[in-house]
Amino acid sequence: MKWQYQQATDAVSQNRKNLNDFEALVKANSRDMDTAWIVLCGALVFFMQAGFAMLEAGIVHPKNVTNILFKNMIDASIAAIAFWLLGYGFAFGSDSGGFIGKCGSACYFGLKDVYNGAGDGMGSSDGWEKWFFQWAFAGAAATIVAGAVCERTKLEAYFIYSVFLSTFMYPVIVHWVWGYGWLSAWGAYPDSNGVARPIFNKDTRSNGLIDFAGSGVVHMVGGFCGLVGAIIAGARRGRFGPDGSVNTLFDGNNTLQALGVFILWFGWYGFNCGSTLMISGGAANVAGKVAVNMTISAASAAITATFLAKALQGHYNISMGLNGVLAGLVGITANCAVVDPWMAFLIGFVAALILYGGHYLLLALRIDDPCDASVVHGFCGMWGIWATGIFCTDKNVQYAGYPNANEACGSGEQFGVQVVGSLVIAAWTIGMSVMLFLFIDKTIGIRVSAEVEEAGLDISEHGVAPSYEQQPQVPSRLCPRVWTFLQVH
Amino acid sequence: MKWQYQQATDAVSQNRKNLNDFEALVKANSRDMDTAWIVLCGALVFFMQAGFAMLEAGIVHPKNVTNILFKNMIDASIAAIAFWLLGYGFAFGSDSGGFIGKCGSACYFGLKDVYNGAGDGMGSSDGWEKWFFQWAFAGAAATIVAGAVCERTKLEAYFIYSVFLSTFMYPVIVHWVWGYGWLSAWGAYPDSNGVARPIFNKDTRSNGLIDFAGSGVVHMVGGFCGLVGAIIAGARRGRFGPDGSVNTLFDGNNTLQALGVFILWFGWYGFNCGSTLMISGGAANVAGKVAVNMTISAASAAITATFLAKALQGHYNISMGLNGVLAGLVGITANCAVVDPWMAFLIGFVAALILYGGHYLLLALRIDDPCDASVVHGFCGMWGIWATGIFCTDKNVQYAGYPNANEACGSGEQFGVQVVGSLVIAAWTIGMSVMLFLFIDKTIGIRVSAEVEEAGLDISEHGVAPSYEQQPQVPSRLCPRVWTFLQVH
Amino acid sequence: MKWQYQQATDAVSQNRKNLNDFEALVKANSRDMDTAWIVLCGALVFFMQAGFAMLEAGIVHPKNVTNILFKNMIDASIAAIAFWLLGYGFAFGSDSGGFIGKCGSACYFGLKDVYNGAGDGMGSSDGWEKWFFQWAFAGAAATIVAGAVCERTKLEAYFIYSVFLSTFMYPVIVHWVWGYGWLSAWGAYPDSNGVARPIFNKDTRSNGLIDFAGSGVVHMVGGFCGLVGAIIAGARRGRFGPDGSVNTLFDGNNTLQALGVFILWFGWYGFNCGSTLMISGGAANVAGKVAVNMTISAASAAITATFLAKALQGHYNISMGLNGVLAGLVGITANCAVVDPWMAFLIGFVAALILYGGHYLLLALRIDDPCDASVVHGFCGMWGIWATGIFCTDKNVQYAGYPNANEACGSGEQFGVQVVGSLVIAAWTIGMSVMLFLFIDKTIGIRVSAEVEEAGLDISEHGVAPSYEQQPQVPSRLCPRVWTFLQVH
Q1: Which residues in chain A have their CB less than 8 angstroms from residue B130's CB?
Q2: What is the DSSP string of B258-285?
Q3: Candidates B19, B29, B342; nearest CB to C29
Q4: Are A288 and B132 within 8 A, CB to CB?
Q5: B152: distance to nearest CA of chain A, Å?
Q6: Which residue, A115, A150, A412, A465, has most beta carbons within 10 Å?
Q7: 3-class SS at C312?
């Protein structure tokens, strides 16, 4: 009996030992599928660079196409080097509830801790894939700016702002919102009094802004930086007549624009779904919900923008429809994980209205943003942050894995945090951008000479002829009714 | 001893408890990797929209390019809203062996049950990703039609058919074949008599049609709807001369066509491989087999079409080669999981012959389908359904996870079900499409005026100039030998 | 007590039984996620065909665009059939440490063993996905050649070399390095004396060359084959003036080039990250590291090439920048898993120097490679193999899962193996290519007639007009300073 008992006990211990082995195996599977998910989604986000390149190449005059393509190639590259050496360290380095990441218990300058195999402090993989995913986001932020300042800005100005944005300006915001800084949604964890609310948590020293995939962090930063750049650079020659008229300088290449928007829409599934940052533990459900919501918002905004253009201008306007897709996607990016499909529909609808209003607002203010980047990414990005507060429900917030356990969504507290957060992001971006572009203008000069602008940047900076002949133009696509209204009032 | 015994028993119970925890963890991993797979494949399927846009933009006259791009953007958007509100509910709602999904134990109108977290009745995830994947398919079906009716159809006609197709016409077929309706392959489960055959199962009340990824459900629906549209809209002005001659209206932009086909081929790996609907439990093996078979079929059809064109026309014809790729892919889509590679080779070979024959058949019938969409998607889609019955083996059918256990493949019973199923799908599609397009024609009119067609849809509907100058044309690419033969006989 | 004891023992056995079930389930999850990873990465690698097509279409004269697109479509197709019937069997068939795969314990001609469900001998999936992934690589190797010989080569010559390359020339190298042949990195497993070194292992009879994703296997083979083809075909008419001048025959379409490079960069994440061949067991960490390293190398090379062009030519040169991206990616491909990010930065930097030097070297030698394919893929591919030996560390090599356990990296032994291996690959490729292209030239003739070349291949071979009007040209982009230097010295 004794012997039998020992045998049984050994068998139990053996089972226990195997259980521990299998537990490790199961967790390794979770970790590895999470990592693969981020690598694949990161590649999709990177592919958005091709989308931006085609979209912008389809908007600028053929004499400036090579320049904008070149810019896209080089800002993704600059972002890689800058984000590797410094940016990622500022964004995700040690610091809780504060302003900027540093070199403490975790240090990511030059990917130091990942490289040393010291773990990443953010999960159980070694963390390589996290840099890759975040770099692709940084590159998107940098490239958005270009759409607003194109066709009259020196290439060297692009180099300088790409370096500054990827190194410092953008990573600081990332740190605040996603890197456990003072605006991190993880600030809504129950504090030592058991209170889990978005407004200041004294333990984490942070406020719980929800910006799931970056309407604020990525798009507002790119959009508002572009707005400042467009203002400081000034309008393209001939864009605004002395009599207040607005001239269409080039009709655009719709094939390239459409290709660009389809690529962006495709890559955006990596951008938003991948922002779950993992798929195990049920996060894949959230990724699925994100895909649904962003599809509905994009569709809603595209349809709204299309029929708005038809109603106001008398004919369809593919550029407005395509920008509608982007506006809908930007608007849903902050909240795709925390709203229901019918809310996504409304968010897209409003984004299209903002697109339209913003487009004419810029014209009325005589601000020249050739790609409407500040409207699509800046204004609609801010709408995305606000919409998160308007539409979120506690149930949805918890479904997405946020720690917010109290009645913050229902009570309007979350909305308050969202509004304040968006204003802070706007203030930081505008403040930094003003300094940046004034510095550029005072040193190397932001703008090319009138002769270069007239001849096109391709011939002067790249030594190549225009990409194709300009087609005979049809009368301006601006809506005369709206325009007259704006001028009269 | 007693105490020792208790200790051992406790250890056993603890092991059991942990086992249960780990079992849940393992199954959660399976569920989450399945969901991620569908999200990623769904994104690939969506990207096919870009492929269709580029392909069609490369075929239509430059004066109609903006219009076709616009149509692509808007039909994907309309499909999203229509499929969200109604289509998905009709396709996958409660109903066994019947005609259409309803609101019963499962209700998917407005994604109701997914949104309520009531489970999806189709697996263990919450089911968001299933809507996303199916929407991408619905968008593909809708966009195929456009290729057949382009260059002379009113935009408003596109809007109407997009809504109807995504809301009702397509979801009904989906319900029949994939939504446990009366043509579902799951009808081959053993009935209460232990018989597992594709012909009427009295328990599930369904017949076991095998259409793995939609040669019938997606491509035949799009292709035959397009055929009806092309006939009712009539030929483009000048396409057929009064003397029976066929005129090439535009030589095509081969760069855009090639880009479109490469994007389609790429996205098709999501379309077919993702139709495993999961990867765990060995489904990934099926996905791998699907990738192999569709590659071989596409390659076989491309090579066949290429050398056929060379033999018949005296020079190579890239459009035929590119359409060959698509024909091979459409033909393999129904059966990619249930055939061997050498069968895939033959399926592609025959698809290329059908492409060629169908192209000249339409010309002989004076039906004008500018993109050969009804040939590539409709005829080759039907071939795909038939080929499934011709080439399937019981071993392969079971490898793909179908319940078909008896000698249905060898005996020809499966082939019979495939032929009848394809005819039913064709009949439904043609019947509905005739009603649809006649309704459109009697109300708003399907066709633009002669002046608009002459000037191009871009200038009239969108207010933009042609996308590029038409190149000097070379003599018609139609094969004179075949053409003469067709006219004489 | 006895009865209680029995009960406890039964519970232990039941736990054991469930444990075994769960172990199988966990391992099935690992296998299925590995397979899904390879299918998705394989699709990304296939998409590089679209990248090559756009890149090459953006470089050749508009009169040859259709021809190059056609070639891309057909060589991917030929590679599929050839690799299915023979190539894959030569690459991965039974044979250890030898020259070529055969039909032994494993037989892959016509996918025999996979098709028979006999397992693949290389893992636990059925192995379909492995063929798919490897086919996409074979297609890439085949298509690289075309860039070097374009604009004057007969289509039939493409057909012949595609068949030969995909059937025999490329699979032999794959067998040597990746198929357990005599250059396999798995040759560094401890031999029967316990020695784990890259130089000849007497048990596996192989030498441990490290070429992670194919700088040598894929890019050198494509690049050197192209170099031989370019030499044997001779320069395009008018490329080199009788006075030694170099003429730019066409300025290029930068939009297509940029689109092509962005697509290639995107697909390359599948190419390199997927070369882990699995993600479970921590391989996902390696995939993440690969993504980081290749991003940094691409960025470093793009920036270097950009500023080098500016310094030497006086203006930016987008073609050089874009080729810089590719050079950086080719250079990192062999070693992306075994170097640190700062090494990746240096590898990209040197790759850009090689690109520049190689470009002018070919001109000085009056070798006409329109796409610089032999420089980007051949020379930078060789640099990638060498860089692996220069920068690898034992720690990194083991992190990537290579068996190399000794001080091979530090001692220079690995570097020696890399140099010898690269020379052997070059010798095989050049030897085979000389035979191949001389055979083609002696039989059907490699080159089109002067009239066809003048008129363009599109009109003569495909019966279509040039794709677009040539733009007015600006003076040659060749760098006068460097050129003068090369001519004087």
Answers
A1: 288
A2: HHHHHHHHHHHHHHHHGGG---GGGHHH
A3: B29
A4: yes
A5: 17
A6: A150
A7: helix
Which residue matches tokens 């905004």? A301
Report the DSSP beta bridge partners of residue A94: A102
**Which of C27, C263, C283 is closest, CB to CB, to A32?**
C283
Let me know: does A287 contact A276? Beta carbons within 8 Å: yes
Mutate which: C30, C31, C257, C462, vs B, most B CBs within 10 A: C462
Rounded CA-CA distance B294/B300 in Å is 10
Length of chain C: 489
Q: Domain locations in chain A?
A: 2-488
Dihedral Cα C247, A65, C55, C304, nearest 10 deg: 80
Q: With an 8 Å Cβ cutoff, are B463 and A474 in contact?
A: yes
> What is the C-alpha separation between C185 and A57, in angstroms, rounded?
45
Burial string for A14-53 (b: 16+ CB within 10 Å, else e) reads: ebbebbeebeebbebbbbbbbbbbbbbbbbbbbbbbbbbb
> Going by CATH, does the domain composed of C2-488 fall within 1.10.260.40?
no
- d(CA C58, CA C63) in angstroms, rounded, equals 12
Question: Which residue in chain A has the smallest CA separation from C396?
Answer: A115
Say yes or no to pLDDT of A368 above 60.
yes
Mutant choice from A248, A266, A479 vs B, greatest count of B C-beta within 10 A: A266
Q: What DSSP string describes A200-219?
A: -BTTTTB-----SS-IIIII
pTM: 0.94
CA distances from B280 to B32, B102, B180, C228, C278 (A): 9, 30, 22, 47, 15
List CB contacts of B60: < 8 A, sequence separation 6 or more: B67, B68, B150, B151, B250, B370
- Residue C125 CA to residue B286 CA, distance in Å, equals 10
Reported as a single tens digit per residue, the pLDDT across C373-406 is 999 999 999 999 999 999 998 889 988 988 876 6
Render pLDDT for B140-171 as a digit per residue (tens, 0 to 9): 999 999 999 999 999 999 999 999 999 999 99
d(CA B32, CA C392): 36
Positive/negative CA dihedral, A358, A360, A365, A368: positive
Measured CA to CA, the distance from residue A92 to residue A84 in angstroms comes to 12
Find tokens 């011709």 and name the residue. B390
Query: What are all long-range contacts of C2-11, with beta carbons under 8 Å and residues at least 24 apart?
Result: C4/B5, C5/A1, C5/A4, C5/A5, C5/A8, C5/B5, C8/A8, C8/B5, C8/B8, C8/B9, C8/B12, C9/A8, C9/A11, C11/B9, C11/B12, C11/B13, C11/B16
**pLDDT tens digits along C162-182:** 999 999 999 999 999 998 889
Q: Give the whole-angstrom CA distance, residue A456 versus residue A440.
A: 21
The alpha-carbon gap from C366 to the nearest alpha carbon of chain B, in Å, equals 30
| CA B251 – CA C463 distance, rounded (Å) | 10
Q: With CA atoms as reference, report the closest residue to B338 among B150, B469, B489, B185.
A: B185
